[in-house]
Amino acid sequence: MRFTLLAPAVAAAALVGTTLAGGVAVAQTPTAPVAAAAPSCGNGLTNVPAKESVKIRSTPKLNGTAVGLWAKGQKGFICNDGKSIKGQKYTLCGKTSTEWLYGITNSTNKKGYVPRACMKW
Q1: Which segments of 1-121 does DSSP mark as H helices, in order?
Q2: What is the Cα–Cα distance from 20 to 59, expressed in whole angstroms?
Q3: Which residue in 67, 71, 78, 77 sits closest to 101, CA to CA?
Q4: For 68, how many CA atoms within 13 A lie in the half-sphere containing its CB?
Q5: CA-CA distance, 92 to 101, in Å (whole number)?
Q6: In which band, very low, low, confident or very high, does the pLDDT at 5 lie, cut at 50, 70 and 90?
Q7: pLDDT digits over 47-105, tens only?
Q8: pLDDT score recorded for residue 25
Q9: Per-residue pLDDT at 36
Q10: Which of 71, 35, 57, 52 has its CA nearest to residue 114?
Q11: Cβ pair 81, 121 in contact under 8 A
Q12: d(Cα 9, Cα 14) in Å, to the nearest integer?
């Protein structure tokens, strides 16, 4: 007896759904998460050297794609007024942290994330 009452209710709900969608049932397509935009490089710190050679990464993670190398002593520009970005925890350059910086090397013009603990400033 329950099943006989359930079927009309399901059919009515489907009819209401198609009426609200303009007569055609439309399913939403899931979308991929949008990656966070890179920080602004309009303002920042100039001529900041690296304490040690570090890989420049596409994301603030140790397994982010390496896009270049910020060599020890090499100077560059730290974007976003030198504000840190929270990322993956790391132990590098004698410190453990989750703080990353976004910057550009002066000589190679490579842009990306570097561990804050490895920069001198």
Answers
A1: 2-20
A2: 42
A3: 78
A4: 18
A5: 14
A6: low
A7: 999 999 999 999 999 999 999 999 999 999 999 999 999 999 999 999 999 999 999 99
A8: 45
A9: 64
A10: 57
A11: no
A12: 9
> Which residue in this structure is represented by tokens 């013009």?
109
Residue 27 burial by CB count (10 A; 0-12/13-18/19+): exposed, middle or buried?
A: exposed
CA distance 55 to 100: 12
- Long-range pairs for 24-31: beta carbons < 8 A, 24 or more residues apart: none
Show the tokens assigned to 12.
């009515």
Q: Which residue, among 88, 93, 96, 97, has the nearest Cα to 60 in the 3D structure?
A: 88
- For residues 43 and 81, the answer to whether their CB atoms sit within 8 Å is yes
What is the pLDDT, as a whole number, of residue 8? 54
Q: What is the predicted pLDDT for the residue at 41?
A: 87
Q: Are 70 and 48 in contact (CB under 8 A)?
A: no
C-alpha 105: how far from chain center: 20
